[in-house]
Amino acid sequence: MKGFHFTRFNANENGKTRFEQLLDLFLQLLTYTSGDVSEALQWMNELDKQYQLTDDEYAMGDFIEDMKDKGYLKDNPEKGEISITPKTEQGIRKRSLEEIFGKLKKTRSGDHQTNKPGMGDEASPDTRPFQFGDLLEQIDFTESIRNAQINHGLDSFTMNEDDLQIRETDFKAQTSTVLMIDISHSMILYGEDRITPAKKVAMALSELITTKYPKDTLDIVVFGNDAWPVEIKDLPYLQVGPYHTNTVAGLELAMDILRRRKNPNKQIFMITDGKPTCLKIGRKYYKNSFGLDRKVTSRCLNLAAQCKKIKIPITTFMIATDPYLQRFVQEFTETNNGKAYFASLDKLGAFIFKDFESGKRKTLY
Q1: CA 225 to CA 227: how far, in whole Å?
Q2: Pairing state of beta strands 165-173 and 284-287?
Q3: Cα–Cα nearest to 223, from 268, 191, 173
Q4: Who is most buried in 37, 237, 262, 323, counting CB within 10 A?
Q5: Confidence (pLDDT) at 129
Q6: C-alpha triplet 277, 272, 179: angle, nearest 5°
Q7: Is residue 155 domain-shared with residue 201, that is, in the same domain?
Q8: Cα angle vertex 91, ends 87, 96, to 5°?
Q9: Considering the domain boundaries, does residue 29 fall inside one?
Q10: Same domain, residue pair 166 and 224
């Protein structure tokens, strides 16, 4: 007789080994500690005391040794400390991607597909007659030989230019992206940790672009009082500084980078709490942290309009729930005719996506 067999639910039986479970937690903590291994391990020990993450068979010391053996940690004898490896940095980015965008398969072609025929990696079922300038590898020899047999017969087989058929490929567009990240002091003010979700979004976007679109270019810019470029590998270590928010400097650097890119498709991703508070005028800084200063916001809106004019869309990830700050991001995005992800006010961990070009709006979890 067939039936169902019920057993007691065990939350730990999720198909992962004890090491994998602890590693997931450790990588999450590294994001909060900005890559500080010692602080992350201290948190692990505190959580272990409270929730019994380990036991006599597999203790925290075993976990640390396993991380070293598997290439996640390395000893630094000169400084007498432990540091993470590039493997760990990529692991943090990958988990951020899975957490925010879901699991995506890696693709070798890695381009943004269009419906237009042209030079590309993916073959199309359509063929057309040969034209001057077509490449030899584009010739469909099966169809070309078939045409030659029909046109000239089998007894005196010849092939000329009129017999050649070209196999079309689907054109795929490459995109140059600049990712801007706000590291001003306001990202940790008012009792709200905004820099950690900002880093998670940044790492997810960078992993998404490098994994799914490997032929794209990606540049990363951080902005506080000034703006400067950073490497993808440095994302887990980003920290908020004693800075104001010079969004204008970030946008100007992003635009300057994109001007040097030859791709016709360009875009900016900006992760911020939405409040620009600083301008650099000559050698001096103009600052105002109290409210939205029209002198500062006008420059931001002017740059948004310039980007729209030269066809550089800006997608903003708003890492704050203050409606007052969200209104500026909405005005900024409308000016650029771009897209925005607003942190949801009533659903923790959700974003409200708004496309100002198409008018679409939906909630993403």
Answers
A1: 7
A2: unpaired
A3: 268
A4: 37
A5: 84
A6: 120
A7: no
A8: 155
A9: yes
A10: no
Residue found under tokens 């993916």: 122
Examine residue 265 and state whether it is found in any structural domain, yes or no.
yes
What's the rounded Cα separation, in Å, for the pair 353 and 342?
Answer: 6
pLDDT score at 244? 95
User: What is the pLDDT confidence band of residue 119, given thresholds at 50, 70 and 90?
Assistant: very low
Residues 335 and 3: their CA atoms lie apart, in Å, by 62
> Reduced to 3 states, what is the DSSP secondary structure of residue 187?
helix
| Cα distances (Å, whole numbers) of residue 249 to 105, 192, 211, 252, 261 | 35, 25, 29, 5, 19
Together in a domain, 79 and 153: no
List, for residues 180-235, the tens digit of each pLDDT value: 999 999 888 777 788 888 898 899 889 988 888 888 899 999 999 999 999 999 99
Choose the final residue of a domain: 114, 143, 171.
171
Distance of CA 290 to the CA centre of its chain: 31
Q: Taking residues 2-28, report their average pLDDT.
A: 71
Give the pLDDT confidence of 259-288 residue by residue, as tens digits: 999 888 999 999 998 889 999 999 999 999
Residues 212 and 355 in one domain: yes
* Rg of the chain taking only CA atoms, in angstroms: 27
Buried b (16+ CB within 10 A) or exposed e, 49-67: eeeebbeeeeeeeebbebb
In this structure, the answer to whether residues 347 and 214 fall within a common structural domain is yes
- Neighbour-count burial for 273-296, b at 16+ CB within 10 Å, e otherwise: bbbbbbbbeeeeebbeeeebbeeb
Say which CATH number the domain at 208 has: 3.40.50.410
Query: What pLDDT, on a 0 to 100 scale, did the predictor assign at position 104?
Result: 47
The C-alpha atoms of residue 283 and residue 267 are separated, in whole angstroms, by 29
Residues 165 and 194 in one domain: no
Residues 16 and 97: their CA atoms lie apart, in Å, by 19
Distance, in Å, from the CA atom of 364 to the CA atom of 353, rounded to the nearest integer, reads: 7
pLDDT tens digits for range 291-324: 899 999 999 999 999 999 999 999 998 888 788 8
Domain count of the fold of the chain: 3
Residue 249 lies in a domain: yes
Q: Which domain holds residue 182?
A: 174-364
